[in-house]
Amino acid sequence: MNTTVSINALSLFIFFGVIQGIILSFFYLLKPSPYGSSNTFQGLLLLSISLCILEEFLNITGLIVRVLPVTNTTEPLNLVIGPLLYLYVKRSIGDKGSKKEWGHFLLAILYLCYMFFEFRQSNEFKYNSYVYSMHSGWPTISTNIKGYFDPLNIKRYLNLVTALQAMMYIALSLRILVKKALLSGRSLFRTDDGLLRSLRNMTLHFLIIFSIFIIVKLNFKGDTGDYFIGLYVASLATFTSLKAMNDSSYFSRSGSFMDLSMEKYRKSSLTEDKKYEILDSILHEFKDNRYFSDNLASLSELAKRIGESSHHVSQVINENLGKSFFELLAEYRVEEAKNILADKKRDRLTIEEISELVGYNSKTAFNNAFRKLTGKTPSEFRKSIMP
Predict the structure, then answer these.
(1) What is the spatial distance between Cα 198 and Cα 220, in angstroms, rounded to a whole number?
(2) What span, in angstroms and rounded, lies between the C-alpha atoms of 4 and 378?
(3) How far apart (Å, rounded) are the C-alpha atoms in residues 86 and 92?
(4) Residues 6+ apart with CB under 8 A from 19
(5) Is 203 found in the same domain as 334?
């Protein structure tokens, strides 16, 4: 066996990106958060990507020869990335989910079972697999194959299936986000909703990742071009780590690990005193003037009311409250709706009437926001508090 190990600056950057990705994934999985369900999917998504890139690091450097039993073990994880992205997006916008959605992982589970034929092969076989994928000019070594390692001859289609599946789930995720944005009267690419922007950016990053995947597989032999994917993912993990270290509330609010938009405030001219002044004005509008009940409420209109720029108002809400304008709006509206639902004097009001009273133009948008923040629909909440 050729045990040559080659480590350079690029491979080290990928390795440190992988480590940061794994650490971040455990923060998402283990750190208490009001967005626990969506963060679980986000943590699993980041962990899956990191493990896939870790195996690529081992292949690129030649270290895989030292741990041959792990060769190709992350292939099934390629088939969970798309479903995890899709389910994370659904959870983030308030979808309650169901047991049936685990069917999205059926393909990955079936392929993991099929991998048994390869897992049982000798280390010599796995070394030859590494040579074929990374160093086609190297000589292979003789080995005995135990039965069939690919009895259905489907491994040749794995890259195609991975790309098609990923693109399908990316399209489904974008479709959900587009519909969600339209409910607020804005396009997905012009929305003021910080959460939607974050989810949009994350989904577009995955579109870029799998576009790189397709280009690499079409133009490079075996896995020799996969380091491009590793570099891209490592860069995202590094920037996310820097954001998390500079923002103590990073894991306590909704938003994706691939959203780098908070950098827009780095050059802000606002002093801390000015931030608190703006914050007091915002809270005065929401608490005393009930701005949330205005069905035309928007970030730009709020900024006009308090005589500040939309950019500064958005910054203060993001940095001081750890949420977006629309998350703040939803919290006040849902809290008011809970008070109305609990008021026996207004128990004749329909859910649609209540949604209008608290500022929603759409009963569906009201239901989604209420369920996201309380875990129940307005009807379920009303029944739960009835004597």
Answers:
(1) 32
(2) 63
(3) 10
(4) none
(5) no
Rounded Cα distance, 172 and 299, in Å: 28
Amino acid identity of residue 379, one-letter, is S
The domain containing residue 53 runs over which residues? 9-252
Same domain, 186 and 285: no
Q: Is 138 left (phi over 0), alpha (psi -120 to 50) or beta?
A: beta
- Token pair, residue 337, equals 């709706």
For residue 189, what are its two tokens? 């690419």
State whether 289 and 336 are in the same domain.
Answer: yes
Shared domain for 213 and 281, answered yes or no, is no
Residue 341 belongs to domain with CATH number: 1.10.10.60
Q: Band the pLDDT of 253: cuts 50, 70, 90.
A: low
Query: Could you say which of 252, 275, 300 is where a domain stops?
Result: 252
**Cβ count near 194 (within 10 Å):** 24
Same domain? 191 vs 281: no
pLDDT tens digits, residue range 119-162?
999 999 999 999 999 998 899 999 888 888 899 999 999 999 99
Distance, in Å, from the CA atom of 386 to the CA atom of 378, rounded to the nearest integer, reads 12
Q: Please, which pLDDT band fits residue 6 given cuts at 50, 70 and 90?
A: very high
Residues 6+ apart with CB under 8 A from 354: 337, 340, 341, 366, 378
Shared domain for 213 and 120, answered yes or no, is yes
What residue type is 19 in one-letter code? I
pTM of the model as a whole? 0.71
Lookup: tokens for 62: 């030649």
Contact 352, 370 (CB under 8 A): no
Going by C-alpha positions, the residue among 86, 91, 90 that lies closest to residue 37 is 91
Per-residue DSSP letters for 122-152?
-HHHHHHHHHHHH-TTSPP------S-SSTT
Residues 146 and 38 placed together within one structural domain of the fold: yes
Q: Using the 8-state DSSP alphabet, how is residue 185 labeled?
A: T
Alpha-carbon distance of 50 to 95, in angstroms, equals 26
Check residues 191 and 59 and name the one with the higher pLDDT.
59
| 314/203 Cα distance (integer angstroms) | 22
| Cα distances (angstroms) measured from residue 63 to each of 10, 139, 285 | 15, 18, 60
Whether 121 and 69 have beta carbons less than 8 Å apart is answered as no
